[in-house]
Design a protein that fits this description.
The protein is of the alpha/beta class and about 350 residues long. The protein folds into 2 domains: about 1-130 and about 285-345, FAD/NAD(P)-binding domain (3-Layer(bba) Sandwich); about 130-195 and about 230-280, FAD/NAD(P)-binding domain (3-Layer(bba) Sandwich), CATH 3.50.50. It is about 25% helix and about 25% strand. The protein contains 8 helices and 23 strands. The strands form 7 sheets. Strands 1, 2, 3, 4, 5, 6 and 23 form a 7-stranded mixed β-sheet that branches. Strands 8-19-9-10-15 form a 5-stranded parallel β-sheet, with helices on one face. β12 and β13 form a beta hairpin. α1 runs parallel beside α8 (about 330-345). The radius of gyration is 21 Å and the shape is globular.
Length: about 350
Amino acid sequence: MLDFVIVGAAQAGLSMAYYLKQQTKNFLLVDKENEIGYSWLNRWDSLKLFTPSEFNNMPGMGFPAPKGHYPSKYEVAEYFKAYAEKFDFPIQLNTLIEKIEKKENHFQLFYEDEIIKAKSVIIATGPFHIPFTPEFHQNISSAIFQTHSNYYKNPTQLQEGPTLVVGDGDSGFQILDEISKTGRKTYYSGSTEIKTLPQEILGKTLWWWFSKTGFLSISKDTWLGKRIMHNRQPVIGTDVKEILNRENVTPVGFTTDAAQNVITTEKEKLTDLKNIIWATGYKPNFKWIKDLELTADNYPKHIRGVSTMDNLYFIGLPWLYTRGSATLGGIQKDAEFLSLYIKEKNNL
């Protein structure tokens, strides 16, 4: 029987594998995809991190790029592959865990017709589980191409003609920027009252300022942390005002309903659409873990990744402990804390 199974082989799972190997634990890292880094490769082609390379270091191996460089999704995937190869982690790919069940002194992880048994489990599947689209998207004519940002790659996927981008977060504006640059008529659905932050201030990267001011280390349990966590997050590194002022971009407010070829928004009814991209986020899914205690927003109940179920842990969740928990470089502190907790628990 294994000491640990880590479910998910992106930055969170790889970071935990690093610390478990240091403790000489008998563990296995499993992932549903057929290659390391696929979770990044699967995103849109032009995606770049808004954190520079010096703030993207996982434990034991720095990001292989010059200071101030903003890596592409391809560079992130290659970093993950090199990281896994350097530390020679035991990895099993093409393994979709469909159910986890706690027995008296161990866990059973079910996939296909197989069962993996382990004394402890670390869930590192991240926050991006079920792509969310409003229910009325099912009422839209099949003549209009629809896709979620999770499946969007580049403008060549789209039909010729007007396109609606729904969503006012980082992903929505990056995709809106790219699509509107093709010159096509582009509608934007979302708020126009968007707070933005540049990637650099006074010659220093935004993340340099965040690290110097301690912003990324503010705990979600503090008054300030709770306020930041529940406030709308600013869009980083995208000139929202410039995009919305382009001649071919029309802000239409929020999308409220749809029927065949008619898409109803706050400002007008759109009847000429050929494409819709839903950059509308994700919903968590932890139903495959039997008897797991969840919060009101369907995330696991935990304290710094230690769940209410003995020997079950989480890492890579948004605001696991701080704002930095959701960033590539912020994983290290959470992974180190969990590894120390595990070590101290085993020494009792």
